[in-house]
């Protein structure tokens, strides 16, 4: 529960398990749950009538909110009352386990094998369906026959076939984008950081990479209609730069209870690349139990860069980095979270034409990280305390720039000198 300092509250736990209460879910999550539940046929844990009821209730709530002339404080209280009434009226079934992989036991898979799958990072049917048989066979104790049976069962519950462009358009229109704190930067991003994909932010020191991460750790907890993601933040820190006092200052800017904001940020320090991978596997377990909106890794390449230093280690480094990024992509796909990774840069000294460029720097990781990132932002220093963000890569946004500022309260619009 994340209360505002004015006494009203926003329940970040309301979206922990979509099956629990669709009436509490924003439209983009409700649609996602409906897609999943439709593929389950007779195994529906929530009837289609109840799902439709929940959608109808949410639509009525949204319409009423748009017509209301009340203050923000009164509106939040009214919305919370409507949410509570909707849940009580519908009397929806509440699955105690979002970890649907447990249902494999009813198909003949032993509880021991299910535990082995979880230890390897497989907690949902989606995670099983999205993997390959070869990867599944690499799990200790999972034979070829078991892997085949597990994959077959998982694919019954996950839609992996063709769909129409119109359906894809509808789903994309329901994606949530998380604001950054700067209106100019949000416009550059098409509304904010996109959920369900990886956004890479790279640049040299003091360009605002870590400050942007701190801002997103707070803003992701805001309600959807305030530019947030209505969920918790998972923050993996490789450089020991996470600062709770920065979180407190940013939370105060938005009149949020800083103590509860900090409680909703799961922080882990990654000490090496192997530990980093172990934390990502653990992240899957945590997300199956609670609602997260954002996963932040600051910095994603630091340990790989430090541990694999020679040219002879380059191939192994890229292979390990690729496996790590693939795990992050799976989290984005399975749980719909926004994944934000920061990256360092290196000067280009290859003797080519690039060395004569005004800003001859390139990000660490090469083509591997470029291909795995959906959106790439390059940050550089501007005039005074201002910084400049450049859209380098996006499947739907043009190359452009935005100026922002780093303040005591996080990322804000650029200051005029």
UniProtKB/TrEMBL annotation:
Stretches of Basic and acidic residues bias are at 14-23
Q: What GO terms are given for molecular function?
A: ATP binding; ATP-dependent DNA damage sensor activity; DNA strand exchange activity; double-stranded DNA binding; single-stranded DNA binding
Q: Where is this region: Disordered?
A: 1-23
Chain intervals with Polar residues compositional bias: 1-12
GO terms for biological process? double-strand break repair via homologous recombination; mitotic recombination-dependent replication fork processing
**SUPFAM superfamilies according to UniProt:** P-loop containing nucleoside triphosphate hydrolases, Rad51 N-terminal domain-like
Q: Which family does it belong to?
A: Belongs to the RecA family. RAD51 subfamily.
Know the name of this protein?
A: DNA repair protein RAD51 homolog
